[in-house]
Specification:
Length: 299
């Protein structure tokens, strides 16, 4: 039996992981650590309400649980907020990872951590795990530093880098590209979407599956996890309209420069998925196929 502790169990990935691992209760004993009340809609796991930026409390709880695996899904993910609130970003995105690595090392647990395409500058695209990072934003820099914490620690770890995660779980504190576009178009509202940034979006259930595979294989090192076609965000929105049979004409292309966002975004990310396919057996698909699977779950 694997004892698995999930930080951020109220989040999009956190709840997807609960739903996946709790299908096999004989294999995984699950502990969810998140702030406030348990918002997963499930009660068949141990929920611990905690602010994980409280170092003492976090370490005490994990030492009590003694998990074999810790999956760190909690992070400050709002890119512009990180630019404004650098201190809070540092604590959650870097210091917490340091503390988790220290505990993991002490109890010989395996730490699975989630990182991002935003560690790259977006000039090249189709990034390999070994390509040189060059973050443009404070968020990207903080996630790169979190990777460095693990790379220089003695802990057993997996880093899963991912891109533009979407999906739907029981009670969500924030939306994502697919839900947002779908909701706006369903309300007949016109939306503007950048056509000069390129991504490979990730269905949250695939990312959760990659976490589970990382447990089962005790995978070590860095792996890329996303869908397998690089699309402009405008094209992504159009495919959402196609799959959900909504009015594409409501989507208007704009360029990034008109947005005046605080944090710079990489132009072209996307991953080379060779390593995760060969070593993890990960099976990436085109965005539209993933979207159709996602649509089925909404019925
Ligand atoms: N979403 C993306 O597009 C994307 C892209 C690339 C990489 N990633 C990475 O993927 C991971 C998972 O992202 P996600 O979309 O699942 O994020 P999410 O939905 O925002 O989930 C994060 C969860 O962590 C909780 N949390 C935040 N601070 C906490 C604290 N101090 N103590 C306890 N819990 C705390 C949040 O609580 P509340 O619900 O109360 O806020 C939330 O439930 C992150 O590491 C992120 O950097 C995400």
């Amino acid at each position: 039996m694997n004892k698995v502790a999930i930080t951020g169990s109220n989040g999009l990935l956190g709840q997807s992981l609960l739903n996946l691992l709790l299908l096999e209760k004989e294999k995984y004993q699950v502990f969810g650590l998140s702030r406030g009340k348990n918002r997963s809609g499930r009660s068949d796991f141990s929920y611990i309400s905690i602010d994980i930026t409280d170092e003492k409390k976090l370490k005490k709880i994990l030492l009590e649980i003694q998990p074999n695996f810790i999956i760190n899904t909690a992070a400050m993910t709002q890119v512009d907020d990180c630019e404004i609130n650098k201190k809070a970003c540092d604590v959650l995105n870097i210091d917490v990872v340091k503390w988790l690595a220290e505990v993991s090392n002490k109890i010989n647990a395996h730490l699975i951590h989630i990182s991002t395409d935003f560690i790259f500058d977006g000039k090249k695209g189709y990034y390999k795990e070994t390509d040189a990072p060059n973050p443009l934003s404070y968020y990207g820099l903080s996630k790169l530093k979190s990777e460095e914490v693990l790379l220089t620690s003695k802990t057993h770890f997996t880093i899963l880098r991912t891109i533009l995660v979407y999906g739907k779980v029981f009670d969500m504190s924030r939306s994502n590209i697919v839900l947002w576009v779908k909701t706006m178009l369903a309300q007949n509202k016109q939306i503007t979407i950048v056509d000069d940034q390129f991504r490979m979006p990730t269905y949250v259930e695939d990312l959760a599956l990659a976490c589970k595979i990382s447990i089962d294989k005790k995978a070590t090192g860095i792996y890329n996890i996303s869908s397998n076609q690089l699309l402009s965000i405008y094209k992504i929105a159009q495919q959402i309209a196609d799959v959900f049979q909504l009015n594409k004409n409501l989507i208007k292309p704009i360029s990034t420069s008109t947005l005046n966002q605080r944090a710079a975004r990489p132009t072209k990310t996307g991953f080379d998925l060779t390593k995760s396919k060969t070593e993890l057996g990960f099976l990436p698909k085109p965005f539209k196929e993933d979207l159709k699977r996602f649509k089925e779950t909404l019925k």
